[in-house]
Here is the input.
Amino acid sequence: MSVSELFYKLNVNFNYVVAVTLFIIGLYAMISNPNLIKKFMGLNIMETSVFLFIVSSGAITGGKAPIIGEGLSSGTVFVNPIPQALILTGIVVAMSTTALALSLMIKLYEQCGTLNADKIKELK
Here is the structure.
């Protein structure tokens, strides 16, 4: 494989490369930080990468939204709407879990005085 072919494939699959990179960054943030807020931010980054990956899998270059209307011919290519609908649901679930987790972290901070996971383990 030549360098130009490699750059072409990288350009075509750029969104998948970004999704994997975001997932690795989020995983590193979760593993390396003892702070609970930073761990949860890493989880949110990982969620975002999964959303990007799934939406990218449903995209078709030159595809149109699957809305029947005027100006469509029999050869019109439509994108798959199911990944987009799943991701909209996933975004709502992610927002609600973020709100719940942040409220629990506030209560935990009020009880323990820290959000460091290692120090919280020692408080038992």
